[in-house]
Structures are given as C-alpha cells and as structure tokens.
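Write out this protein's structure.
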Amino acid sequence: MAGNFNPSVGSCVWVEDPDEAWVDGEVVEVNGQEIKVLCTSGKHVVTKASNVYPKDTEAPASGVDDMTRLAYLHEPGVLQNLHSRYDINEIYTYTGSILIAVNPFRRLPHLYSSHMMAQYKGAALGELSPHPFAVADAAYRQMINDGVSQSILVSGESGAGKTESTKLLMRYLAYMGGRAASEGRSVEQKVLESNPVLEAFGNAKTVRNNNSSRFGKFVEIQFDEKGRISGAAIRTYLLERSRVCQVSDPERNYHCFYMLCSAPKEDVERYKLGEPKTYHYLNQSKCLEVDNINDAEEYHATRRAMEVVGISTEEQDAIFSVVAAILHLGNIEFAKGTEIDSSIPKDEKSLFHLKTAAELLSCDEKLLEDSLCKRIMVTRDETITKTLDPEAATLSRDALAKVMYSRLFDWLVDRINTSIGQDPHSKYLIGVLDIYGFESFKTNSFEQFCINLTNEKLQQHFNQHVFKMEQEEYKKEEINWSYIEFVDNQDILDLIEKKPGGIIALLDEACMFPRSTHETFAQKLYQTFKNHKRFAKPKLARSDFTICHYAGDVTYQTDLFLDKNKDYVIAEHQALLNSSSCSFVASLFPPMTDDSNKSKFSSIGTRFKQQLVSLLEILNTTEPHYIRCIKPNNLLKPGIFENENILQQLRCGGVMEAIRISCAGYPTRKHFDEFLDRFGILAPEVLVKNSDDPDACKKLLAKVGLEGYQIGKTKVFLRAGQMADLDTRRTEVLGRSASIIQRKVRSYLAKKSFILLRNAAKQIQSVCRGYLARSVYEGMRREAAALRIQRDLRMFLARKAYTELFSAAVSVQAGMRGMIARNELCFRRQTKAAIIIQTWCRGYLARLHYRKLKKATITTQCAWRSKIARGELRKLKMAARETGALQEAKNKLEKQVEELTWRLQLEKRMRTDLEEAKKQESAKAQSSLEELERRCKETEALLIKEREAAKKVSEIAPIIKEVPVVDNEQMERITNENEKLKEMVSSLEMKIDETEKKLQETTKISQDRLKQALEAESKLVKLTTAMQRLEEKILDMEAEKKVMRQQTIASTPVRTALGHPPTAPIKNLENGHHTNLESEFNEAEFTTPIDGNAGKSAAERQIMDVDALIDCVKDNIGFSNNGKPVAAFTIYKCLLHWKCFESEKTNVFDRLIQMIGSAIENEDDNSHLAYWLTSTSALLFLLEKSLKTGGSGATQSKKPPASTSLFGRMAMSFRSSPASGNLAAAAEAAANAVIRPVEAKYPALLFKQQLAAYVEKMFGMVRDNLKKELSTLLSLCIQAPRTSKGGMLRSGRSFGKDSPAVHWQSIIDGLNSLLVTLKENHVPLVLIQKIYSQTFSFINVQLFNSLLLRKECCTFSNGEFVKSGLAELELWCCQAKEYAGPSWEELKQIRQAVGFLVIHQKYRISYDEIAHDLCPGLSVQQLYRICTLYWDDSYNTRSVSQEVISSMRALMTEESNDADSDSFLLDDDSSIPFSIEDISSSMQEKDFVGIKPAEELLENPAFVFLH
C-alpha cells in the first residue's frame, strides 16, 4: 500500500519511529522520492515516500469495531485503532471474524455479567460490540443451524489472557447449552472446577507471566441433538517435563511443589519436607515466592478442587507423596564408587533423601539405589549388569523424576475426564483450544522449538481459514478474485517435520546413537540444510541454528535437545515402581506390553508431532473461530500500551499475515452509501443524475480514472493505494472549495459592514429629527396643561363654599328632630317597666303557694311507697332462688346433651338398627316440645293481654288509694308454669337416659346402615337446636319478668277499677318478640331445602353443588353494572354459606385453584388472562376483608350460647346500657352487609395465598406478552435508516411500509390494544398502571442498552430519530394519563441519553454540566461510553473535549474497586411491583353491594341462599 501512495504537501501520514514504532505527522516538503514530515511530537523526519503510510483523518476518535472497516488497512492503522479502543476500555476488536483481545490487567466485571450474556444471545456476529460471547454464540448458532462441529482457537503469548478468555467461552457455552446432571453438578461446572487442579500441576511462573500454562489444552464440549451439553473431555499437549529438573532464573517450577512446602505442619512432617530453598529442583532460581499468591491457601484450594472432581483423600495423599518423592530425588547426589565408572550416594544427606523417597514411593531403598546407579543389559546368552558414573546416575535420577511427574499429570487428566463424563453418542462438539503462542527468548531450547512448530501448524490452518473467508466475501459480492495469490508456510513445516530429512527426524536419529552429542547433531543440520532459505547458521555459533518462522527469526540452542527429546522409560525404573506396595504408584507404571518391549526408541518430538496431526484432524473437521490474545505491556500493569511489543504479538498471532492476505486482494471495502458520502464531491453530477448506487459508484470511479477496482453487490472493493489516491483528490477538491468559501465569506463580511454603516447613519438622522419634534410638542402640551389646572382650581373653590353652607343647615334641622324623638321614647319605656313589675309580682305569689302544696303531697307518697317496696323486695328474693334452681337444671341438661353428642360421634360408624328407636323417641320428644311451645305461646299471649289492659287502665284518671305493688295471681300463675317446666325437663332427662341405654345396647351391630345413622344424627342436631331455642325462650321470660318488675317499681302506684296494676308500654317490643321466636324456630327446623337430592348424603350434595358452581364460573359470565366480576362475588357467597372458611378440612379450595390454573393455560390470550386477573383480584379482595385469624373453635363452643332472639338481646341491652334505640338499626346493617368477617382456618388462609400467587402469575403473563410483542419492534426502532448524501440529493425515494415511523406506531398500537383489553375486562387501575410502568421500564432498558452496545446507534441522526419516537410515547402517556401513571418517568435514562446525542457544540460542555444538568440519571461509565462511541453522521461535529473524557476516566479509575460501579448496562425489572394491600386499597366494600349472582345458579334449588 505504501508503494502506491504518492504523498503531497499537507498529507497526513504515518512514519516509522524507533521508540513508538509508528508516529503520525504532516508532509511539509516533497523532494522527489524524499519527503519531510512534521510529527505531532514536534520533531522533523526525512524519509522516503515508499516508507510512509497514509493516515485516515476522518477515522473516529474511539476507533472502529471491525478493522476491515478501516479506510487504510496497514500496520499503523491497526495499531492506532487498537490503542484508541484500549484507552476507552474497549479491549475487544474484530478483524473480520477474528477477535483480538487486549489484556486490560484490571477487573471489568460489567463486561461478563449474566445480563451481558443475555444481550449477545442470538445476536449476529458484528451486530453488537466485539466480545468472546459473540464468538461463542456464533459457534453455537452455526453448530445448531448447519449441523457442523465448531472449534475456537485461543492463542497468544504467556500473560495475554488466554486462560481467562477460555473460561469466558466455557461460561457462555454453559449458559447456552447447560443442563444439570443427575448428581447435582452439570458437565460445564465440572470442567470449570477442574481448572485449579490443572493449574496447580501444569502452570508455573515464567518471565512473562506469573501463572503461565506450560501445556496445551483442548477442551471438547459435546452436545446432543437438542444443543444441550451432554459430555466433555480435556486433551493436553506437550507438558514441559524438563522444567521439573531445570529451572532458569527468575522463573519457578510447577506450583504444586511450592504449595506442598507451604502445606500445614502435619502434612509437611508426613512428607519430611522443608523450605523450598533446600531442594535442588527448586533452588536453581532465586524466585521462590510470587506476589499476590499465597501458596498455603492455594494448597487448600487445590485439595478442595480435587475433592470436587472426585479424587479421594487416599488418592490425594498418594499424589502429594509422589510430588514429595520427586523433591527428595532431586536432592540425591552421587559420588564415585569403588569400582570403575560406578557411583554411590554422596553423603548421609543423600542417603536420607534416598530413604525418604523410597518410603514415599513404597518401594525398597536398595532397589531404588540400584535403579539409579546401575543398568541391566539383556543379551541372547546372558544378563550383564553395568554400573553408571555419577554424571550418568544424575541423568538417570532426573529421567525418573520427569517420567514420574509426566505420568502423574496424565493420570490427573484421565481422572478429570472420568469425573466429567464423556458422551460417546454426542451429535456435535465445540472445541476450545488454549495453547501457547509463538515464543522467542534469548535462550530457546527444545520446548520453544516444539511450541513454535505448533504455531506454524496452526498458522497454516489460520492462513487457509483467512484465505477461505476472503474467498467467501468475494463470492458473496460476486466479484472476480481468481488472481489473488495465497502464500503458504509449508516449506517451514517440511524443514521441521519432513520424514526423512527433517529436523525432528535427524534429532531422533541422533538420539538413537549413544555417542551422539548436540554438536554432532548441529553439524548434521548445517550439512543438510545449508542451502535452505528458511534455515541459517548464526555467526560464531558452534551448535546453534536459526529458523525463519512466519513471525520472525528464532535462534535455537541445541545443548539439551537430545536429552529433552528422549522419551523412553528405563526398564529398572519401570520394574521398581510397578512393584511398589502403593497401588497408586504401581498404577502409574503398569506392566509394559510385548509391543512396547519390542519398540527400540521413542521420542518427545515424534510423539508431539503425532499429537499435532490428531489435533489438526479434529480442527479440519470443525468450523474454526479465532481469538488472538494480546499482552499490552511486559509490566503486567493497566493503562500501558507498548506499540513495539504489540506489533510483535500481532505478527506472531498471524493478524498481520491475515492483513497481508487481505491487502493482496482488496483491503479497502466501503458500502455504496459510505463511499458516496465520502467521495461524492469528486463528481456531484453523478449523484444528481443517477438513482442507482452501484451505477453512481462505477461512474464516479470511471470519472476519476481509477482502474482495478471491483463493484460488488453492496460494497466497493479498492486495491491497495487507491483509497489514498481518492483521499488526495478529495483533499484537493476540498482545498479549492475552501478557497471559494473564503472568497464568498470575505465578500459577505464586507457587504455586511457597509450595510451596518448605512443603517447607522439613517438611525442617527432619525434620532435627531425625533428629538426636535418632541421638544416642540412638549411646549404645546405644557401650555394646555396650565389652562386646565386654572379651570379646575376655580371650580373646586366654588364647590367647597356651597358644601359648607349646606352642611350647616342640615345639622340644625337634625338636632331639633332628635330632641323631640328622645322625649317620646323616654315616656314609653317608663310605662312598659311598670307593667312588667306587676306581672312578676303576681306570678311569684302563685308559685309560692303551689310549692308548699306539692311538697306536702310528695312527702306523703314517698313514705307509703317505701313501705310497699320493702315487702315486694322480700318476695322477689324468694323467686330468684327458685329461678337459680331452674338454671342449674338447664346447665345439667346441657352437659348431658354434649356428652350424648360426643358419644354419638365416636360410635357413629357402628350404628345399624337405631333408626326405628330414634324415630319413636324423636316423635315423643317432638310432641313434648310442641306441648311446651304451646304453653309458652299461651303464657306470652296472657302477657300481651295484660299489657293491653295496662295501657287502657293508664288512660283513666289516677285515684290516690292504697295499692299493692305485686299481682299475686300473676305470680302464682308464673310459679305454676315454672313447676310444670321443671317436670317436663325431668321427663326429658329420663327419656334421654333411656335413649342412652338403648344406644349402648346397639354399639356392637355392623356398619352396613351408615347412611340411616347419619340421617338420625342430623335429626338429633335439629333436636339439640330446638332445645337451645327453648332455653333462649326461658331466658327471655326471665328477662321479661325482671323488666316488668323494674317497670312496676318505677311506675306510679295507681289502681284501676278492676284492681290490675298498670304496665308501662315497651315500644321496642311491639310486633317483634313473638314473630322472631316463630321465625327462628321455623328456620332451625326447615334449614335444609327439600329437593331432588334429599335422599343423598350431605357429602354427595356438597360435591354436586361444587361441581355446579365450577361449571358455571369457569366461563366468562361477565361483570356487574359497576364493573365487578360476577364470578368472584358468586364464589365468595357460596364459600361463605357453605362455611368453607371455618372448615378444618375441605377440597373445595383445591378444586377452585385447579379450575383457575386450567383456565389460564393459554398464555397468549390477553383478553382471557385479563378477565381472570380481574376475577381473581376481586376474590382476593373479598377474602382479605373477610378472613380473620382467631382462637380455637373448641374453646369457644364450651361457653354458654348467647341469646340470639330479639327479646334476649334487648334484655341484655337493658342490663348494660340504657340506650337501646340504635340496636335495631345496627342489627339491620349487619344483616345487609355484603362482606361478613369470619374466623379463618388453615385451608382458607392457604387458599388466599394461592390466589395471591395466581394474581402475580397472571400479571406477569400479561406483562411478558406485551414485552414479547414490543421486543421485535424495539430492535427496529433503535437505529435510524441509513441514507447517503446521494440518496438525499436523489430524493425520489420513500420508505413506505418499511419506514421506521411505522414501527413506533406499531408500538403505540400494541399499547392501545392491550389497554382496550384491560379496560373491557375492568382490570383494577393499580394493576394497569404497574403493567405499563414495567413495560416502559423494559423499553428504556432495551433502547438504552442497544445504544451503549452498538456504535452505529450513538449518532446525531439516530438521536433525532429516537427522540421523535419518544415524543410519540409521551403523547400516548398524556392521552392515557390515568392508566399510564408514572410510566413516562421510567424512560429517564434513554431520554437523557438521546437529549445528549442531539445537543449541538458538545465540545463546549463541561463534565459538571453533563453530569448534573443534561444527564443526572446516568452513571460515569454510561456517560463515558456514550461520549466515546458518539459520532456525528449528519454535520461531522466533534464530541466532548478531551478534558471531559479525562475527567470521566479519572472518576472511573477511582471507582474501579467497586464491582457494581463498572456496570454500564441496565437490568430489566421482572419483579412483582404490588402487594395485596395495593389491590385492597383500589377497591371498596360498597362496590359489591347490589351485585346479582350468576343467573344459572339462581335457577338451581341448591343455591336458594343466593336470592
């Protein structure tokens, strides 16, 4: 691209810099092929024109999401884009389908919340901001839709964040396809829980990372046909075994060694360990501790993780025994033995470690020593034992340590896979590859050689994928791509792994010869590849070699190549450990098969090459996705972006190679509208004449003379350098246009100045003329004013003189007339006073005479009445004693009846032949009751006649005679009646005793006539009720007697001519007592209606009644005139009458709940849901007002029954209070009350809770239906239509049905439709308001989150578009104010954000104005993201200033410790925003007065009580 770029003076370019890699500047001078550039840093640079790259001055300050959208796709452009995004914490960027992840070295929890996963679910790749979730979702969707397995390759150097990215991918895949396993933990949880174990045994501190994975890991997540996770497996590659024995400073060995040394004291003593610095395998490096890592805590965490993945405590002890044995083996040193080339342990310390290692491995100490110091060679004829020198013994020791650790790691991986569980029948899989990146250090050994071979293999796979993606892009756009060349790295792979003749083959050959050394191996390489272009021999090097990899040249040191390549297990070591008494150690070294015994040689390189082949076979059968992790600096600190380091990683990760492949074709791709917007000024006439974008682009390019471009279906494809050429011509056109604009502006300013001067002169002239005219006018006005003042003054003086004379005459006349009137008044007052004095004097004399006469009369009456009252008191006391005896008999009778009822309930299943006996006894009792009732009625009739006679006598004039207070005849009659009542009660007692005896005789008869016994029981209940009525009548008669006595004593002692004492009339008892007695008795006797169900039991009748009720109310039976549901009122009345609320056990509530549940199964019918929501909430209100919790009913039933008759209640009121006038009104109000409080039992309270739950469920269903309907429309309403400038000039288009305004109107229609439905079904107002409040909150969340996640939405035109839609919503809220409630306030965040987008001159606004005036409801993170994503697509104005951005960044850094403060997305509120009290407050009891029950039930005789 640089070679095709011809810079001119004023061009903005990128220049190479030794410190910053690339710096930007402006060309100030051009001298042929040399140019002079003024850099932004201030220095001048002279360079060749071919070494600079063009800079896109119109690139957004916050960068672009996808670097394929860059105008110039080159190294400095890519680097600048990553830097810009890294500065605003946008750590993810796409390059096509490749995701680049820059490690922020800080916590960004808001990017990985469950809400963020929900946002990316189902979103197309590139629709939202770049994220690993988007890559995982694309892989999952492609697997489901295409039926092809997927793979995600995560690569990068140590410390770049590969492991964290892998964990995020696992989390998202678990979120999409997770399924709980039967044992309680899901497959994905097991995979994540295995990470601590693998990190403890496979990770170590390196120069670049404190927790570097020293092995490759490929996680296979297996899915079934439904896309749910069914199993998983972990494959590992190339564990760095040499690190066990050799550690370079300042790195560390594997974490598990340091954890074990920091274990609790008892564990350390068990394994006989000490400080890490005392062990040879650990003290080769001075770094024994790592900052922010507590090895003791990590030890416990690893133990817990082992338990989670299913490793028992015994196996854990055995594992750490092997780890401790490896540490002890490393401390065994050897010295020369007595024989030639022999060796023995050096000293006592070595012997101690030898003995400890043997104990930990549960093997013989002597055999362990022999296996380290001797070799047994088996020949055809004999077995030869060969001793090893100290150096060979040391190598044997290290080989044993490495193979033990390698076998231990492989065992852990196998056990983890067993714990996770693989699915052999899985349909698909998604593989996540977490593998080391390209490595190049000062010293590069065999490990770096294998790692770089892996990256070469993966780079070839990556290049093929990128080339394939380029081809697919060109095919999709239907352009010619046949001439694009693809550069392959197959020659490097052949150099390394070709067989025979490759480096690995030569290395294996050298390892098989005992006398081969690294120097002979190096010489062999020099001879074989001396002419290979990818191989080189460094100068002054004897055994090093250099390979030209795709990412750069790497020099390898062959010193340890041979030792590290050997992979055979020494036979003595195999036999020793296989015979260990520890089953775990023996399992690590199983007996070798015959095939393995026959094999002569095995190498790490060959085995690793085979693993790579199998890995690539898996990858080739899957659709790959790539994530390239970048480490921004080697200090591992946030906010530092090292350009040179990142460029190297981009090259190593293949990103620059992908860009090179893209540049080989068409690196610049612009949509037609974007292309015309940017370069339309080069040929404006094309925009005016043409209506087709492709034709317009083609003519524009033809006019400017470009060749080699391609016109696709939706994009313009430009070759390298053509974009810069177009920008140069555009700059020239803009320069000429600027000159014309300057000329026009200067002309305009001069004309404006002349017009201002001319207008000023005219204004001065008019001011002067006006001043002169005003002066003349002022003189004339003063003269006229003087004349008017003189006239008014003369008039005032004349009026004043006349007024004074008039007032004097009137005063004299008034004085004379007043004196005459006062004299007349005085005479009249004297006459009236004399008359009043005479009147009062005569009245006083008359009253004095009357008082004396009255006092004498009262004194005589009081004396006589006192004498009579004392005699009456004695008689009343005697009568009271008799009444007490009657009360005791009544109580005894009550107890016997209760005892009889209790026994009857216990033995009711054993009654058989009791029907005939009970019928006879019941008939006798009934006849006795009728006789008793007849006598009571006769007594009452006599009382009524006496009252009428008393009324007549009271009208006769009183005669003062000696009157007896008590009517002896009446007293005797009442006493006789009491005696008769006693006899009847005693006879009833005798009959009850006889009945009890008969009942005891029939207790042993079978239960085949249970129905007849139940009927007899109901009759007995009626009898008991009648007895209670009788007792109430007795109490009423006693109360009546007391009232009569009180009235007799208080009345005037007069006697009529017949000799009967008068009785005061009781108005409150007229036509009341007798009628109530009859009605109540009849009600007790005929409560149960006689219908067709009379022959059935009460339980069956109740079941039929409940069935009839449910059949009636399960359908929509409408509402009353005031909008209350008839069904709810009918159900409540039936439950109240059936006394279900007071029942300890009933299934009526369960059947009603089942009916409601089945009625709302159709979740999509809002009309049906609204009807049941209204009915259920109304029934819940009735229960809330009616049900009262109280004490046990059994305790209350033991109290004597209160009087329920009218006379009894009036008698009680006489005793308690004299005011009894309001009692009848209160009783009438209680009878007419719709809602009656009842003592609720547990089933009723549970029914109330279930109703509340169904109200909440139906509310949520209606709300979610509305949300579901609006969610598809909201995704279309967040982004304004894209129109180019050419499109605006050719304004012959209209959107029609696709216009976004239609989508906003559809939202309004959806809101109106639901509102009409809710109003038709009379849903309570509070529920309607809550539905719309949460719906508007959902609209706010969806629009606001889309605004923050999509860069194309944060534009000026989009803000205007969304603002117009919000205005429609505001208008709707105003029209439906009563039902919308505070819904408009729920759109606070999106309203403030849109208001900020459409405001002009943002660069002049300070942070305080934004945070406190414009957007007070938005957090710093939200404001920062809006400000950084904003771009003006209409007027190309700037966003906020850099000072404001810096202030926001500082505030975000201060709040970074708070995990919640980092979140910039809003969460949707799906809670239930109301309570039962809110529903109760929205209704009133009076609303249910006058509601008619269901007409269908009114025709049923069993529901007579509803009338």
